[in-house]
Amino acid sequence: MKYFLFLCVFSISTSMVYADPSILVYHDVRDDYGNAVIDAIDELWPSCIPDVYTGTAGQNGFNAALSSGSWDAVVIECWCSDLNGIDWLQILDMYNNDDAAFFIYCFNWIGPDGLLDLAHAMGIEAWSPSPYMALMEVLDYSHPLVQGISDWQQYYVESIIMQRVALIHSDAYPVTGWEYGSDYVDGICVAPNRRSIISGFCPAYAVEGVAIWKNILTYLCDEGSLNSSTWGGIKACF
User: Fold this and answer.
1) What is the edge-to-edge ordering of all strands in the sheet holding 173-174?
2) Which of 160, 167, 190, 195 could form a disulfide with 186 if both were Cys (CB 3.0 to 4.6 A apart)?
């Protein structure tokens, strides 16, 4: 039995190295900005085919996809479309059940049911949107989310109102932030489950957006040694 289990885990772990992650994406696209996340997926995993939904018209399809598959990573990058069509209560439930690793950026954290509760669950106690562009600073230079990034500037997108969102953490872990008086407000934060990310910084219109997204996606998909498909394979051995 021990030998059989060893072979099972070895074969699964070997295949895990080569397996593409299952990724669900909702993102906004406007004024030639927003596709950095897709470009990053293509560069990291050329054979990966993410399930992608865009803008208000894609929100119903995204909601249906949330419960129709087993996702290693779910990306939600909302920076210009109406938030009301997204099923935030379902996302909150999935986060609480640790069903996937999430990246979530929203230009607004109030309104739809479940949205503010999700921010609280992900370790954020308060937030404040801002129309101003300010250079974000790295707070933890050793963290994998910031490796290889030398330019955190963002392009100014004239057609949107809120360029960034300052977060104030409770038990999330801030990796980047903005100076605010004698202290900092938070930019990119790792949620308390240490798998997911909540961000006040939008990579969609960042100068090094693709490189930043590659760090984020690698963290989401590789932070846990067992992704959803791998764990299913191990269970099937018993």
Assistant:
1) 51-54, 23-27, 73-78, 101-106, 197-199, 188-190, 173-174
2) 167
Q: What is the CA radius of gyration of the chain?
A: 18
- CB-based burial of residue 119 (10 Å sphere; 0-12 exposed, 13-18 middle, 19+ buried)? buried
Straight-line distance from the first to the last Cα atom of the chain, in angstroms, rounded to the nearest whole number? 10
Domain that holds residue 115: 2-236
Q: What is the CATH number of the domain that holds 220?
A: 3.40.50.880
Helix crossing, 88-96 with 59-66: angle to 10°?
30
Question: Do residues 222 and 165 touch, judged by C-beta distance below 8 A?
Answer: no
Residues of the chain where predicted confidence (pLDDT) is lower than 50:
1-17, 223-238
Q: Which run of H or of E encompasses 22?
A: none
Q: What is the pLDDT of residue 132?
A: 73
Q: Are 22 and 45 in contact (CB under 8 A)?
A: no
Q: Which amino acid is at 152?
A: W
Count, residues in the chain: 238
What count of Cα atoms within 13 Å lies in the side-chain half-sphere of residue 125?
8
Of the candidates 150, 162, 140, 166, the one whose C-alpha atom is nearest the C-alpha of residue 219 is 140
Domain count, the chain: 1
